[in-house]
Design brief:
Keywords: Signal. This is DUF2911 domain-containing protein. By secondary structure, the chain is mainly β. It folds into 2 domains: 1-31; 33-175, no CATH class. The protein contains 1 helix and 10 strands. It has a 6-stranded antiparallel sheet, with no helix packed on it. A hairpin with a 2-residue loop joins strand 4 and strand 5. 25% of the residues are buried.
Length: 177
Amino acid sequence: MTTTRINRILALTLAGVLMTMMAWAQGDKANRPSPPAVASGKVKDATITINYSSPSVKGRSVWEPSGKLAPYGQVWRAGANEATTFETDKAIKVEGKELPAGKYGFFAIPDEKEWTIIFNKVPNQWGAFKYDQAQDQLRVTAKPKKSAQMNEKLVYDVTNKGVVLKWENVEVPIAIQ
């Protein structure tokens, strides 16, 4: 074998190894700018689990009408990357309305004075690009309020009263019974 041929084989092998490593790294969701997160807890006897990707504010405009991350009046995936999912192992009441046990795509339509919270029958979606209102299981409204502190990263808390979405200077409590 000539040196040129050996070098060519080594170069191709190295390129293959590098491409495999890059593909593997892309599949590691923990390394994303908006890493995956889970909020879980009990509300009465129901276990609630929220799977979401947690974006950061990074000095960007989030909520204002000109906000690029979650603009007012538009369906938002309530996180980043894949749509947020909301799962309950028992039927619950959200803001006084029945939601059967199951796993749902969790979306929101933010606004300054009132948010629409959406539980969609299609849990596994990428973003809100293929969101279909006809697949909504339940829509409720919730009142946002000013957060006591700045929340750089989006976070969900499951409390004994429901779920609270916190991001930037906004908190949205969603009552669950």
